Amino acid sequence: MRVFVLIADSGLIMQQINRIIVPGFYRCLQAGEPDKQMQYLEELKSEISKLVDACDPDGPFFLGPACCIVDVQFAPWMLRLSRVLKPYRSWPNAEEGSRWGIWIDAMEKHEAIKATTSSDELYLDSYERYAGKQPFVEII
Prior knowledge:
- The protein has helices at 2-30, 34-54, 69-89, 99-109, 111-115, 120-127.
- The protein is an all-alpha fold.
């Protein structure tokens, strides 16, 4: 029975990632005014805190010692926080030893995640336009 509860909970968490975290990431990145950037950063931090609160307390991954579908789905966005939002919007580092920091560290070290992660330079280049550092190209 516990397996079914975990599957249902994981589905809800993945919906939260898709519907709240991903749009929140882009909202932070695209905000032009500094006060809006700060507002959206705080909102995104709050939503991520809800995910962290739902994590297995011992971790290091979302459901415990093994990487699961929630980790795999959230990994690209988790990594973009430090590679994109940190340089463009001053996203803070996780507190060392915090549950959030332990989760990030485990994801950064996971071989499958490392094998599918781009270079920091590619992330910066890819998101430069979203951050307002380069004009958007209009298609006529």
